[in-house]
Amino acid sequence: MRIDFVSLFPEMFAGPCGHSMLKRAQTAELLEINVVNPRDFTFDKHHIVDDTPFGGGSGMVMKPDPLFRAVNHIVTTSNIANRRIILMCPGGYRLDQEKVKELASYEQLILLCGHYEGVDERVRLHLADEAISIGDYVLTGGELPAMVVADSVARMIPGVLGSSSSAPQDSFYNGLLEYPQYTRPREFEGMEVPEIILSGDHAKINRWRHKQSLKNTLERRPDLLKNKELSPDDALLLKEIIAEQTGG
Q1: Does the N terminus or the C terminus of the chain have fewer Cβ atoms within 10 A?
Q2: Is 124 among the catalytic positions?
Q3: Could you state, in order of their start, the residue ranges of all structural domains in the chain?
Q4: Is 50:62 a contact under the CB 8 Å cutoff?
Q5: Which CATH class is domain 171-246?
Q6: Active site residue 90
Q7: Global confidence as pTM
Q8: CA 121: distance to chain centroid?
């Protein structure tokens, strides 16, 4: 996969993209990351990329022409047909694991990072394929959200994670929060690891983990269960959890 960031602040990507999983993915040639600055696609001597909004109002708005030129440059030089152009925007589709899995099916993502008061609407309507938000709040620019998208999508690329089973066990992958994880030492300051996961009985361990996943979801994100189609076993486990919580 190739991910292109279009940003006025390319230096912001050096840290996150140069360490840990994203760095390993690039070293293994599973992921290619490129950063393009819209200022490089302006023709005036001051490299102006923003202007005051028509109709008045506070702040400055990013101009459409540098962004269109920057994306056109990426598209023509990369020559990848299976791509998705995404505007990082507070008013976009809220990112979730299903969207992450969908984005991972493309060979190229071009992530447009807005800044200032916003981006000319023609970018959203006629350049981007869609707009994505990482939550119901406003950040200074689209750089941090774009990094979140890149990191979450990179995890879905085969070979990026150390184990092929890691991603399916993550929170939200199957619509539930992840079960608790433990490691050595077995006992720490009076806090012990649950006995069942030390039993060696993998069937019981898997059932316990799934039950804990359901419990975590019920307690922390009950909204996720409203839209999830529960199996008969899930429904039974939820009844057990509720009975244990209520003493019924």
Answers
A1: C
A2: no
A3: 2-154, 171-246
A4: yes
A5: mainly alpha
A6: yes
A7: 0.86
A8: 24
